[in-house]
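Protocol step 4 of 5: obtain the predicted structure for the target chain.
Materials: sequence only (see below). No template structures provided, no constraints applied. The aim of this step is simply to have a reference model before the mutagenesis design in step 5. Sequence pasted as it appears in the construct record:
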Amino acid sequence: MNCESSPENKIEMEERQMAMIIDGKKISTQIKDELKEKVEKYKKNGVNICLAVIQVGDNPASTVYVGNKKKACAYIGMESQAYELPEETTEEELLDLVKKLNQDEKVNGILVQLPLPNHINEDLVIQTISPKKDVDGFHPQSVGALSIGQPGFVSCTPAGIIELLKRSDISIDGKECVVIGRSNIVGKPMALLLLRENGTVTVCHSHTKDMKEVTKRADILIVAIGRAKFIDESYIKEGAVVIDVGMNRDENGKLCGDVDFEAVKDKVSAITPVPGGVGPMTIAMLMYNCVKAATAE
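Step 4 output (structure tokens):
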């Protein structure tokens, strides 16, 4: 036997023995470092980039997310404006603030942290944000642009997943891609982005019949259903790539995803962990969108 096997053969052997754990923290840091360089260059040319973040109420999870967004802005050298409004803020007051920020030339991106209190119409708030400052990618104009292949802002989580796959050298072109979940924030834009990369895409949801038969065809399986450890090895094709968007708590209060990581990891070729997989990418792509908003022609 020739001991000097090719690098390709060695990689194939390693992949068969152990799944690649896709490191979202590492890849998100790469993206933020690239943005940091860009932001420094723009600053030298007198261009400051600013993200305005609005939080209504004191939802603990929202407070953590908002804090992480402020830290990311500071890391890459962007300015951030924080508006922490009381729970009883009226819809009219919130809309007035959004309109004011739309007009503020110093603000490049506007983010309203969801969920909002029940007395505020989330759709109306999202539609009030200027499409030019819609760094979350939720405005109907942004979604419409994505659906017909026009330039625009893309929802941060699906955009982050595409970056995870590309920067892990996982090809989407021609692959059978299955998305579990059809939300406006993840499932639907995810399907459109995979189509844009020439994947063959199926979307599963709560009304899908024989879901396991569908998911077991997937070369790339993306799970976004919000049910702790719901997907086990019986849903997975041997050697598939599994991206877990879930963020749940298990019976011991420990963070976990929608995929049963321990049950699945020996059957897949690559998988994202929870935490440390998709989560960090969402904030990295928010930063990317904000820089894009500031520098768009």
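Step 4 remarks: The first helix runs from residue 7 to 17. The chain has a mean pLDDT of 93.
Proceed to step 5.
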